[in-house]
Here is the input.
Amino acid sequence: MIEHVRKAVGDEVELLHDIHERLHPVHAVQFAKDVEPFRLFFLEDALAPEDIDWFRHLRAQSAVPLAMGELFNNPLEWQPLIEGRLIDFLRMHVSQMGGLTPARDVALFANTYGIRTAWHGPGDTSPVGHAANLQLDLWEPNFGIQEWYEASELEYEMFPGLPQVRKGYMYAGGGPGLGIDVDEDLAARYPCEDVTEFWTQTRLPDGSPARP
Here is the structure.
């Protein structure tokens, strides 16, 4: 698949691939070796947090850039990867890791090792979270890339100052603080729904729960 896409788009388009920790560590190492010829911008979540010691084997056998961190919660998870120069991009979820202050601290720490940021920013990150990500991006000396989702017109109306994307670049709102506000009256008309994300309900053949 990746070979087909690389041939179709040429060398000027950056490709990223996310494993979502779904491979056994030894197979993740093999996969990283297999995709190396296609010059990925980075390979994401090749290993689960409990398997981070395998990053040494992966780094020793492949030159593909590595991104990791969206499941991390505390410094003892990301510190050894930074100090060992075992990854190239930080993918932590800013609110999950404790907010702007620890994110600032880890960005500065990683900068001394030449590691860049790629803060987690999927569609289930709130508009306020995306605004916070962008403020970090604008400040940090080691910005790499920012994950973004396509916000709806309703979200832009509900959250004045929500960052806008034009030609691949994000632009912050002009307001104070994070540059974003919330129209509480409008938000009250669209309450949150309590739903189960079925793609997360992965189970093994014996019925036991497993990481999706």
About this structure: The chain has one domain: 2-184. The CA atoms of residues 21 and 47 lie 5 Å apart.
